[in-house]
What we know:
The protein is mainly alpha-helical. It has 2 domains: 8-195, no CATH class; 198-309, no CATH class. The protein has 14 helices and 4 strands. It has helices at residues 8-31, 37-50, 76-79, 83-105, 115-123, 130-135, 142-145, 150-155, 159-172, 178-195, 208-219, 221-232, 250-256, 263-287, and strands spanning 59-60, 63-64, 295-297, 303-305. The strands form 2 sheets. A two-stranded antiparallel sheet has the order 1-2. Strands 3-4 form a two-stranded antiparallel sheet. Strand 1 and strand 2 (63-64) form a beta hairpin. Helix 11 (208-219) runs antiparallel to helix 12. The longest helix is centred in the last third of the chain and has 25 residues, at 263-287. The N and C termini lie far apart (47 Å).
Amino acid sequence: xxxxxxxxxxxxxxxxxxxxxxxxxxxxxxxxxxxxxxxxxxxxxxxxxxxxxxxxxxxxxxxxxxxxxxxxxxxxxxxxxxxxxxxxxxxxxxxxxxxxxxxxxxxxxxxxxxxxxxxxxxxxxxxxxxxxxxxxxxxxxxxxxxxxxxxxxxxxxxxxxxxxxxxxxxxxxxxxxxxxxxxxxxxxxxxxxxxxxxxxxxxxxxxxxxxxxxxxxxxxxxxxxxxxxxxxxxxxxxxxxxxxxxxxxxxxxxxxxxxxxxxxxxxxxxxxxxxxxxxxxxxxxxxxxxxxxxxxxxxxxxxxxxxxx
Length: 309
């Protein structure tokens, strides 16, 4: 009688996809009435600024525009269009950018069902464009879209990209409504904390902060650059987890798929453990006698074969 081996890798992918889809459907049942709410806030905030008004006065109920002034700049071409055209246009661009990111990272198409990605696509927050920008040739634009996108650039020490962003910041500084922004800063900070219910990062449970910092050091600079924002940035929303996409593993993606406060910190520690474990296995393999090509652990936890002499 012929037997077929169990394909555990395929089963794991099916289980992970089912987990993604289940949580995404549950999330959509909650946020269904709020389609593109963040995107409309950005469009109307930018339109208000172009009309000479105060963008931070724009709100839908308790949801206020709260981005830094440079975030207005990329929205200008779209704010000049009718909202009925701008919203589907930017949504289409977000879908294309997300598909490009999956291809760039070598992830299968069903990762489009990853809940933080679905959440971001539905609410339309410009966060959706950060990882594609950071992975592409226009990384200098990412901190203009969202200020916290500067974090991976600083950790990776991409000096030329940071210099371009800084020049744009200096040139546009006189054009942007910085006085109004600073006037609203205290209120905006409070509103962000309230809207995120304290946020998703380690700061929701301060006891997690030192362990999260240690985990970031353990995993190495390259991976830590992607994990830093979801793990430690204050008042984060669920979709901030997208910043970790270039460094995700199936386990950490599964953790981040659930909208649990503190989840990104736990996922960061899990990622650090995975990397430590792989490095240990690589060292054990290198020490094992009889191996012609010992494996070596890279700084991000992957293993590669040493080049032959």
